[in-house]
């Protein structure tokens, strides 16, 4: 593969990145070629030393999405980062997707419990409106107690969610570094 083929393939594979980011990356690789030529290497030798454009693009896209997730931990950015890291290799399907699904399940469960506890007085009042003969002050006061507990659970889940997102982004970064290091050794 020569320089033109390498750049055409890399440019095509980086189409999901913003134009400015893609241009910076291509400029960096242009500098690699200039340095390699000044050292007397051929284009083919430089391409061979850089590696496969497919693997380079997967690593660069994963790194970009991880940076976006660290900057703005929105749901979309986290999902794009997870998907990009999974794309680095089949092994990541199990190592990344399994913990991600588990954490999301636990967090959704915590949020569901907190919100349902907060809404419990509304459910008691709906029940009383439909079946007025079953009204009991115990049910009403118990649901009000659950509301207080639900508020504490929801506040706790807010902080747990923030902590888990930061921790999972660090885990994704670790995974990318591990894959990049593993690829260099192979």
Automatic annotation (TrEMBL):
Bilayer-crossing residues are: 81-104, 111-131, 137-160
Q: Keyword Transmembrane on this protein?
A: yes
Keyword annotations for this protein?
Answer: Membrane, Transmembrane, Transmembrane helix
> Which protein are we looking at?
DUF1700 domain-containing protein
Q: Which organism is it from?
A: Ornithinibacillus xuwenensis
Q: What is the lineage of its organism?
A: Bacteria, Bacillati, Bacillota, Bacilli, Bacillales
């Amino acid at each position: 593969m020569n320089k033109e083929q390498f750049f055409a393939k890399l440019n095509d594979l980086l189409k999901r990145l913003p134009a400015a980011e893609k241009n910076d990356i291509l400029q960096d690789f242009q500098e690699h070629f200039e340095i390699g030529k000044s050292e007397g290497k051929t284009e083919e030798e430089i391409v061979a030393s850089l590696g496969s454009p497919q693997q380079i693009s997967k690593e660069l896209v994963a790194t970009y999405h991880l940076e976006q997730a660290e900057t703005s931990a929105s749901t979309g950015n986290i999902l794009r980062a997870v998907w990009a890291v999974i794309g680095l290799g089949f092994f990541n399907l199990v190592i990344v997707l399994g913990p991600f699904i588990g954490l999301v399940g636990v967090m959704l469960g915590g949020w569901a419990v907190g919100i349902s506890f907060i809404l419990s007085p509304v459910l008691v009042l709906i029940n009383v409106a439909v079946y007025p003969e079953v009204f009991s002050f115990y049910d009403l006061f118990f649901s009000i107690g659950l509301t207080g507990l639900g508020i504490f659970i929801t506040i706790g889940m807010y902080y747990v969610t923030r902590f888990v997102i930061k921790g999972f982004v660090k885990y994704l970064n670790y995974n990318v570094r591990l894959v990049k290091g593993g690829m260099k050794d192979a």
